[in-house]
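ping. complex inputs:
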Amino acid sequence: MSEKNRYEAGFGSDAQKEPRRIVFITKKTSAKVKGEVGRQVMSYPQLILREAIAFEILTIVLVVIALLWDAPLEQLANPLLTPNPAKAPWYFLGLQELLHYFPPIVAGVLIPGLVVVALVFIPYFNVNIQGEPLWANHPRRRLNLFLGCIVVLLVFFGIYHAWTVIIPTVVISGLALTAYVPAAGRGRFLEFLGSRPLSWWVMTWFITVAIILTIVGTFFRGPGWSWVWPWR
Amino acid sequence: MIMNSAQRALDQLRSTRVWKSIFRRGPARTNRTRSLAVFGNLFLHVLPVKVRDKSLRVRATYYLGSFSFFLFLLLSVTGILLMLYYHPAVPQAYRDMKDLRFVVSNGVFLRNLHRFGAEAMVIAVFWHMFHVFYRGGYKPPHQFNWVVGVGLLLITLFLSYTGYLLPWDQLAFWAITVGTNIISYVPLLGQPMRFLLLGGHQIGENALLRFYVLHVVILPLAAVMLIAIHLWRVQKDGGLTVKEDHEREK
Amino acid sequence: MNYEEMGKPSKGLRLAFAITSVLFLVVLAISPLKDLLQQWKRYKKEFVHFAQTRPDTKRLLADFHSGIDQIWIPNLNVVDRCSTCHLGITQPSLLDSSVPEPFRGHPTIPHRAKEWGCVVCHRGQGLATEVKEAHQTTLAWEQPLLPVGYIQASCGVCHRSEIPDTPKLNRGRELLEDLNCVGCHRLQGIERPAMIGPDLTEVGNKVSREWVYKWLKEPRTITDSNGNVVVNGYENEEEPRMPQFRLNEQELRALSGYLSSLKSKPLEPYKFDARVIAAWEKKADLAQQGEVRFRQMFCVTCHSLAVTRAGETKLIGGDIGPELSKVGSKVNGDWLIAWLRNPGEYLPHALMPQYQWTDEDLFKVTRYIQSNLTDPDLLSNLPSLGPPRPDEIQLGQRLFLEKGCASCHAIKGVKSPSDFGPDLSQLGSKTVSQLLFGEARIPHTLVAYIRAKIADPVSVNPAARMPQYHLKPEDLEALTAALLSMTGQPATAAYAQLVVPAPQARFRPAGKFGEVYERYKCYVCHRFNGFGGTLAPDLSFEGSRAQRPWLIAFLRNPQTLRPALTSRMPQFGMTEEEAAILADYLGMVTQSPSVNPDSVSPKEFTPEMANLGKQLYEVKYQCQSCHTIGATGGYVGPNLNNVGNWMNAAWITAWLKNPQALVPDTIEPRRDFTDEEIKSLTAYLTTLRQNPHIPAPRGTVGTPGGSR
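pong. complex structure:
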């Protein structure tokens, strides 16, 4: 690992402590991978057979669903007859729910645009390469930073009364804060939370918000995008 | 007993000249012939010859990627069958939905499969992505494949979205109206983009035709390309990311 | 593990594969099996069994095949698969109600089911081959079958003109027009009625604030707990035109205050000739004399009066003008005189003709109205109102617009709102999801919605501005049917070709005739080429029928030709000149194309022919059973005592040939007269004159009040 050895070492996988693969890069030769691959089996038939089973199970489930329920079909499209509320396909209802709170440019363009950009760039920003738990290093400084971000976010959401966003945000950040206290001997769940890195928290927050917004948009929104209870 | 005789019949079939001329190999009983079965087959050769034992475990992947792919296959098959009964015209498109339901044998079943399959594919693709994220599957050397995956996610959403308009019922029309209105919020480019997508300022016959062409030609072709790259790169990037046992116990 | 073992799948895996493969094949087979058990396939089989129990099996199964049957009308964009299950629909032998549905035949109607299918009339989803989808409201089809009671609405979709087979629809359209529904709503093919609510520009001169208050509170009608409509205490057959608005005390005060303040100038009392007053003022029977004149002028042809006979009070008289039993308690005396002298001055579009009064008649009749046609209790039990305050007037003015009063009543300077209520021209094709039912506990169907909305507007929408109408159940049904027929523009060009438009003709001639015609409002009772009232004979071909001298004499002093009728032509007191103008115009313009005045020459007629005609009249054809000559004969047809002066010989000839060609709905039977017989009859009839025929130079014919 020094000039003398003419080797440089870096991490080729997420396993910091026990690297499976170590990349040795000499200044003259190309990369060579040396590491343990684990036990291998033949793709044919081991993989193929499993995939075939997966395919058949999938088909069976889908066929049963298709036999039990009918795909929705409403009346002929009528541009003059606007349903109230007009809803997008379900996977865009989270977005539509955001549109209810935020100005269209934010909810319709900025947020989905940022999400796509963020997804594309995840692998190029060394996100979570080391898998370091959120509170592992400089807990104080990180706590201040974390709280600062949460407050800014909540104020931003608060301005627009976006409470279907605020609630999951508060819940997830609350869980992240409980992990701040050292986790030893506090049950498996809290230990698990304590070992989660920042990227895990961000993604979990994002998924939770997306799922809640989608569910709210699908089931809890009625005429004029007002709140309704689906069971009433 | 039956198994044995069936096995014998199969063996005999495999030793015929016709069989050999097609598959260029005998029964896959040795690792060599098993390898041949994979890389000697146009469709299977994107797969590695050998895979890590651990990556086959259900909990490693939940087969979400496979499910996404199989859903794509099912949707292609049912979709092509549906194309036989469908006209992208107003209001014939809606009439075709009625005919599928009331006249075509198994028409409802076909449409149900396609519709529910499409919803399932969206769920499967999202789930697949989140799962890969939590597994760290985007980490080097899989960066590029992650990006391809994001592209596939977008294509899947767009495929589902374009398909949503095709029945030309109230549900379709207004869902697409809401969706395309969001596009128009994009500064400067919003209105031109919406115009390009709809072939007009309103959702009408042109929009239906464009959505149809996107749904049955352009997007599926793009999806096939990306899927091929995606699978190919799984192999080239050294297989699936699996967690070692000791790692999971941590 | 052995190197070669890496490739060998475990037993469990192989078993899993075997099981899933079997299941896979099984579930794929379900849908094709399910397909064999569809409802319509079962009905097809049942029909074959059913047909075998009938004597005419062969005919019933002549067109049978095992697939889906459909009637396709490409022009109308209709695909109708109803006959897939309704297999006996065209079979006349399956009409009986003992035949089980869905195999029963369809009763004979003008349109053949084979050509038109079912959904054109019955609605429902013709594309469907499932019972529920075809008949009921579902997510994918919100226009269910039309209840059979309203089926005439479907006739009205194409037949915009009146057809005799649809009495309910016709009644509904008539009501839509009479009630001035188009005052607030847009409705296809319905015109504003000839008379809407009266112009209120000067109403403060006409009635008192108290009367307005009472009227707004109980507009002429009170519906008692049994649903009987009572008009100011008397039962009325006709529906009331003024509906009841839901007004509170403050609104009643404001509106009555505002309306009573409407007078641009105070009314100037008419100055009677002093001699008339001197002669009549003190006579004790002044009112009785007035009543006699009132009757002689046949005011009751248009106006009704409450008459008590044998302890039962009834309205007797016409319904063209308002009922007058209590009018003396309603209107201001000076206004009444001004009105009677010239209705057009107060209401430019009044239906009331302008009579030519003598001072004496006017004095007597107004006195009769003011002293006898009254009700001292009419305005009792009212709060003391006094003169209106400015804030009440202001509020009243606003309410007048907000409540929609301006849709029926004009006030000079107040703009009547356009499209005050919702557009109803497409109500009949609305889907359930377009309707707001509110809290109403009614079935969620279009029919129930329309019924509820008319019967009680607030039941479906508490904020409804629509006033309360009190309709008889059959009228409610008729209105609903008429509204259901309002399906907007035809969906396709082919549909548009099917539409039979309603006649739009308006007969509003110009010139001198036009003036007189307007003054006496001839069109209120008479019909001219499809325009006008139906109370009196159609005058479209009067010029071919009547002789000019007779017409002038009749117009100046109408004598009834049909004694059996209660409503008669009023005595207008027309001048000679006016009568001549009318007669000249009618003679020139209202000629029937099927009557050639030169075809018959009265000079040909000989006494022998007349004698033969008399024989035919009395013996062979027994015309006296309906017509009166002399003092004997029936009252069904017109009296023929003066027919020689009355009718042109050419008309009589044409009439005898084919009465229906001249007046399509006349009850005169068409007989197979020979040409010779017609000639003889005409000859006979032209000899029937009550006073000698006087050749008539213009303006010198007849004597007013002369007897014939």
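Confidence is low (pLDDT under 50) at residues 693-708 of chain C.
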